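To make the argument concrete, we let one protein speak, a sequence paired with a row of structure tokens, as a model reads it:
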Amino acid sequence: MSVHTSENEYLQLLRSVLERGTVKEDRTGTGTVSTFGYQMRFNLNEGFPLITTKRVSFKLVVSELLWFIKGDTNIRYLLQHNNNIWNEWAFKKWIESTDYTGPDMTGFGLRSQSDEAFNVLYLEQMDLFKQQILQDEAFAEKYGELGNVYGKQWRDWKTSQGESIDQLKDVIHTIKTNPDSRRMIVTAWNPEDVPRNMALPPCHTMFQFYVSEGKLSCQLYQRSGDIFLGIPFNIASYALLTLLIAHECGLQPGEFVHTLGDAHIYSNHMEQIKTQLAREPRELPQVRINPDVSSLFDVEVDDIVLDNYQPHPSIKAPVAV
């Protein structure tokens, strides 16, 4: 039975880019079909917007978001929570270093998809890399670090005076004390750090909060979005951030508004998307937050519970690095 939920906003984005997108080259060499400027709206009272037309790992969404909130920029915390979504960027730094003496891993992202023998080697080297990150603190400090990515900018933005701004803490304070403010913004795009100190320039560049009638809404501006793999995570992550901040501030959730710059489908995701679009959305799940945790900064993975998530099966697809 077909269920009408806000998931249709996402499915309509897939259809729109497939039908009207422009073929473009990209940094990874994979090739994309792309649209510029697109907006989706998710009513957070209709259920939690975790895509049901394929399984999305909520555990990975939670551990990555808490990693950002903690201001952490090292993949070690993620690996401790069995979260591998940032590994490739740290691994790239390792294999390009003079300390690396293993087999040639140049262009591992594309090569591992087309060369089975190479893929075996790549998986072996990645596994060794992960074990070293987990077991060797000095190695993790050197090669697990991604630079001044999201968590750093959210929690410890460095000013030209050498001071530190905790944007996330400040925005929560403003929501509590001046909810009609139009300046409740957190930005991850630091023009000085982008070319120098980031493994990957932030795709979700800034977000803004809005309080109305006792409800907290959030709008994200995302400069670049991998529609099949990345955007379902981004929707769930910022919807969850909105719920967590609403929980701390004693507000109800409102809307999550997702505004995209370059919204693209990678050329090697086309078949997967056709599979997904042939499926009917199911009822959205619900999220429960431990009522005993009052501060966003005290939330741990076990304080967030997902109820009634009954998605269609996963659809595998390669990541472009």
About this structure: The beta strands are 22-24, 32-43, 157-158, 164-165, 185-187, 204-212, 215-226, 252-266, 286-289, 304-307. The mean pLDDT is 94. The longest strand covers residues 252-266. Residues 116-135 form the longest helix (20 residues).
